[in-house]
Write a structure and sequence with these properties.
- By secondary structure, the protein is mainly α.
- The chain has one domain.
- About 85% of the residues lie in helices and about 0% in strands.
- The protein is built from five helices and no strands.
- It is globular, with a radius of gyration of 16 Å.
- The two termini are about 25 Å apart.
- It is found in: Nucleus envelope; Nucleus, Nuclear pore complex.
- This is Nuclear pore protein.
- Belongs to the nucleoporin interacting component (NIC) family.
- InterPro entries: Nucleoporin_int_Nup93/Nic96 (IPR007231).
- It comes from Russula ochroleuca.
């Protein structure tokens, strides 16, 4: 049972990384102003996930099963954003990576 579960999980992870890799490749074709200001947009996106949505949902009175599914989806988005930032060939400051990592940990808890 656990072997098939881990294969499915690994297969899903590989698919997610492939999708992120496609997004990284597409990013090269976006307008230069988006690329130059990525150091602003990535932390803002993580702020929306972590502070804006995740914390409010975690404290809400939404039914537990629904809330857990939504929290898991937000954790996945947070992790995907981290992977995206790591796969970019653009140099971001260490402060940006550190900030993203801190919020990703916050969402994971």
């Amino acid at each position: 049972m656990s072997r098939s579960w881990s294969r499915r999980t690994l297969s899903r992870s590989i698919g997610e990384v492939a999708k992120i890799n496609r997004r990284v490749e597409e990013f090269k074709d976006l307008h230069d102003s988006l690329q130059r200001n990525l150091h602003t947009y990535l932390p803002l996106a993580m702020d929306v996930i972590a502070a804006g949505v995740y914390q409010k949902l975690k404290a809400s009175n939404t039914p537990d099963a629904s809330r857990q599914m939504t929290l898991a989806a937000l954790r996945k988005k947070s992790r995907s954003l981290m992977v995206f930032a790591g796969m970019l060939r653009y140099r971001l400051s260490l402060d940006v990576y550190s900030y993203l990592a801190c919020l990703d940990v916050e969402v994971a808890l």
